[in-house]
Give the backbone structure.
Amino acid sequence: MTSPLPPTLTTDRLTLRPFQARDMAPYVAYYTGPRTTGVGGPRPPRVAAERFLAMAGQWAVRGFGRYAIAQDGPAFGHVGMMQVAEADPVEMTWTLWDAACEGHGYATEAARAVLAAWRGGPLVVRVDRDNAASLRVAARLGLAEDGDAAPPASMPGARTFRWAPSPLGATA
Amino acid sequence: MTAHAFTSTTPVPIGRFGPPRAAPVITTDRLRLDGLTRDDWPAYHDLMTGPRAKHMGGPLDLPEAWGWFCSDHAGWSLGGAGSLAIRHGDDTVGEVSLNDLPYFPEPELGWMVYDGHEGQGYATEAARAVLDWLAANHRPPTLVSYTDPDNAASIAVARRLGATLDAGAPTPEDGDLCWRHW
C-alpha cells in the first residue's frame, strides 16, 4: 500500500511529524478544556487520552492520518486526514491546541503543506459555524463550501467544505 | 511502584515499557504473534461491538471501536508496548496487548479472543509467550492484568499464567480485579 501522505513534512516554520509520547499532555490539556466546544468536547482526561492514542494509531491502519504540529518541542496542534468507516469520506482537520498559538498563520501553513502533499482523493472539511479563526483558514485554503451538506450528529453546528485534487496533482 | 490516579488533566507519562520499538514477531507451538493490520478490523469490530465486549469496557459503538482499534496500533510508535495479533494458521483468533495506557495504574498485559475461537487455550498460550518475551526485553518493574470480576474465562487465563489476585492494588475502574504477574 502506497501511503498518500509522507510520515513527516516541513514548512518554513513548522515540523509536521508523527505523534510522540510527550505530545499527550498538551493534547489532553486541550481536549479537556474549552477549545473543544463545537467539536465534541470538552471531555474527561481518560477520553482525551483515548482520542490521542486513536489519532496516533490511525496511520498504521489507514496509511495516512494526522500529524503533530510542532517546532522543536512538544506538539501544539494537529493537522491531517481522518477516516473512521471505510464508507466515510476522508476528512481533513486542523487544530491548534492552545489559544496562544493562534494568530501566527500556523494552521494555514500546516494545512497548506498537507494539501500539497496529499496523493489521495477528494476531502471533506467541517468547521463549526462559530469558529471564526478556523473559517478564515478554510477561506485562505480556497476550500469550496457545500451549503447542501447536512452536519454530522457529532458536530451539529458544522459548515461543510470540499476539496478535490487537481488532475495534474495537488497544487494547493 | 506508585499508583497513579488519572484524575487530573495531567496524564501519567507513557513509556513505562521503554522507548518506541517495532512490534516483535513471536512464535509458539501453535501460534504466531505479530503486528496488527487493517485486515484485523472486522473481527475486532464484531467482538467489541458485540455482547462479549461487556467484560472489556464495551459494547462500543463503531467510532469508539475504531478508536480503540487504532489505539492498539499506536503503542509501539509512542512507547515500547502495544498489541499483537494472535494468528493460528490462516486465522486471526485474537489479540494480546501490552498496555501502557495513561489511566492504567500499572503496566498491563491484556488479551481478547475473537468470536468463534474461544476455549482453545489461545489466549493463555499467546500471553505466556509475551510474558517470556517481555522478561528478556525491557521488563517493566511491575506487570498486572485487569479483568472484570464476572469474566470467568479471562480469570481462568490469568490463573493459568500464574498471576495472583492483588486485592489491594488500584485498578482503572472500581470493581476491576488486578492480577499480578510480578
